[in-house]
Amino acid sequence: MSEIRGKVWNFGDNIDTDVIIPGRYLRTFDPNELALHVLEGERADFTKNVEKGDVILAGENFGCGSSREQAPVAIKAAGVDVIIAKSFARIFYRNSINIGLPVVVADIDADDGDIISVSLEKGIISNETKDITVEFQPFKEFMLDILSDGGLVKHHLSENE
Known about the structure:
Elements: E1 4-10, H1 17-20, H2 31-35, H3 46-49, E2 55-58, H4 70-78, E3 82-85, H5 90-99, E4 103-105, E5 115-119, E6 124-127, E7 132-135, H6 141-148, H7 152-159
Parallel strand pairs: 1-2, 2-3, 3-4
Antiparallel strand pairs: 1-5, 5-6, 6-7
Helix pairs in contact: 6-7
């Protein structure tokens, strides 16, 4: 898996799955439809301006609340390539990996619009705008394989071909 590089969108602590994708939009499983409403209650400008490759940076307990799988699906479909947070709710973390969305536990100083690069293999995050680098626990090979294959189901199918 190559380096991830994108523009930062900052969010605070305790961003729950109801905020990520409100229940009123769960009548569909279409990822593109969900992406139109992701995080709209937290930041109205997000859905209109998020671009492929962008990075979510958050505080503690990102993805808390219900175990709805649509939350990471909506984020990934919106174009976000990685979420970096000080901590994640366990089920959100697992659901994200399961669908092929990298989630990194780390703390780095960054403002909205800063450019961040992430190496999952090396365990390095660089804020290119502020010239700050932090380390995190590198992803193990099996995790990288799951992410490279696009998630757990696709990974399992590729192993059985």
